[in-house]
Amino acid sequence: MKYQKPKGTADIMPDQSSKWQYVEETARKLFEKYCYQEVRTPIFEKFEVFSRTSGETSDIVTKEMYDFYDKGDRHITLRPEGTAGVVRAFVENKLYGPEIQKPVKTYYMGPMFRYERPQSGRLREFHQIGVEAFGVDNPALDVEVMAMAINLLKQFGLTSLKLAVNTLGDDESRQAYRQALVDYLTPFENELSDDSKERLKKNPLRILDSKDSNDQKIVEKAPSILDYLTPQAHARFETIKELLSVLDIDYVVDSNMVRGLDYYNHTIFEIMSADDAFGGKWTTICAGGRYNKLVKELGGPETPGIGFGLGVERLLLVIENQSLPIAKKLDVYVVGIGEQTSTESLKLVQTLRNQGFVAERDYLDRKPKGQFKTASKLAAQYTLTIGESELVEKTANLKNMQTGTEKKVTLADVYQDFALLINSITEE
Ligand code: HAM
After folding, report:
1. How far, in Å, CA of 85 to CA of 364, rounded?
2. Quick one: 355 and 420 in the same domain?
3. Ligand 1 centre from 206 Cα, in Å?
4. With a threshold of 0.70, does the pTM exceed it?
5. Could you identify the atom of ligand 1 that is nearest to the CA of residue 123?
């Protein structure tokens, strides 16, 4: 019987995993500079954690949930996104407590699941690197979060980026806008897609996010949320734009942007790339925003929050063709000539690894030529060659693969301190 991976999933094989590790390590290092700490939450949660937060009329809840009843008849969902689970954990672990320093800055990375139609950059199991920061409503934090996302993408060498920002304002702004939108859309009701007819009653803002081309044409002339902001929400958005300029971050305001999840208010943003990987079309790699009601929604005290999620597969599509410094370095390749050297080679690689070096050897009793070829292919810095005569003499031949310099060394010195030996060969 032939087994194949489920549709919309991918195997990350050894030749690709170094890229993933590089992306993850770069993100960790950057997040730590901004004082974020990692949080790991379950890959599945109670269905309601997502249904109550993503929005009743969102595509995620209506079409894309991987949900099931477990053997104890609990309604479970594989997480479609990271935010709701992190908020649930924030509340459950009472990180809102006054004794805890605010903002509480967290990051995470891992798989998410959405039943979507698979295509390039869209999978059913995909991976996000995300951040969530709680307890501070200061616009400076909104801008810092956006700046951090841009910094991260720039570190990967991404250049053709567009930061689109918008605001959904506060409750009062949104209610006024909702009414304006209903007034505008009602005359078009019969022309709207079935989904949007439903949304018109339940959540008209969602229509702005419709993927139906006719809906999109209709909403082109829809009123803009920016004309319905309360003075406070307006001032907040002005501050955001000012602070982006202070940091020299280019942005465009996209007043039709609503995002696919319902929990946002005030700042929302998307970072897009128009790389060849997406046929030159603007594709969102990273997206996020502020969600000041979500902690309360999941049972905590009203606590502001903001964050973003970055699609790792989409990021990798863009950086795939760039030469990234991702090759894992190999310090030493031990070339063993003749079967008798195998035990010594085993001891050598073991010792070198214990001394902190990345070391590899031949396990197939191959000819020296083949072993040197492998050493070059693995970009080994040094080779340590041991044949039967060296075995008797208790020596080996150390070679710097970059300069070609060679030196006879004693095994005792290798076992004592290999770092000293390579220093001596470099100084000569
Ligand atoms: P989102 O816009 O639904 O936001 O997803 C964020 C990113 O995840 C997208 O921009 C995209 O790169 C990637 N992504 C989403 N769906 C797929 C898919 N099916 N296949 C591949 N990549 C995908 C969120 O998930 C929010 N939790 C972001 C956030 C964090 N907002 C505040 N904090």
Report:
1. 48
2. yes
3. 16
4. yes
5. 20
Contact 284, 271 (CB under 8 A): yes
Residue 228 assigned ligand-binding role = no
Residue 411 belongs to what domain range?
330-427
321, pLDDT greater than 70 = no
Measured distance CA(83)–CA(81) in Å, rounded: 6
The count of domains in the chain is 2
Instruction: Clarify whether residues 261 and 352 are in a common domain.
Output: no
Residue 369 domain flag: yes
Residues in the ligand 1 pocket, defined by CB under 6 Å: 81-83, 114, 116, 121-123, 126, 128, 130, 132, 260-261, 284-289, 307-309, 311, 313-314
Q: How far is the CA of 412 from the centre of ligand 1 (A)?
A: 55
Whether 254 and 301 map to the same domain: the answer is: yes
Q: Is residue 181 part of a domain?
A: no
Candidate from 314, 316, 317, 319 with most ligand 1 atoms within 8 A of CB, to mutate: 314
Task: Give the pLDDT confidence score for residue 326 in this predicted structure.
Answer: 60
Mean pLDDT calculated for residue range 358-369? 95
Phi, psi of 380 (to 5 degrees): -65, 140
242 and 389 in a single domain? The answer is no
What's 379's domain CATH number? Answer: 3.40.50.800
Which tokens is 398 given?
């150390």
Q: What are 145-192's pLDDT values in tens digits?
A: 999 999 999 999 888 899 999 999 999 999 999 999 999 999 999 999
Number of other residues whose CB lies within 10 A of the CB of residue 91: 20
The answer on 151 and 131 residing in a single domain is yes
| Predicted local distance difference test score (pLDDT) of residue 327 | 56
178 assigned ligand-binding residue = no
Please give the structure tokens belonging to residue 49. 């954690």
Instruction: Write the CB contacts of 120 (distance below 8 Å, at least 6 apart in sequence).
Output: 277, 278, 317
Residue 265 covered by a domain? yes
State pLDDT tens for residues 19-65. Answer: 999 999 999 999 999 999 999 999 999 999 999 999 888 889 989 99
Looking at the structure, do residues 103 and 37 belong to the same domain, yes or no? yes
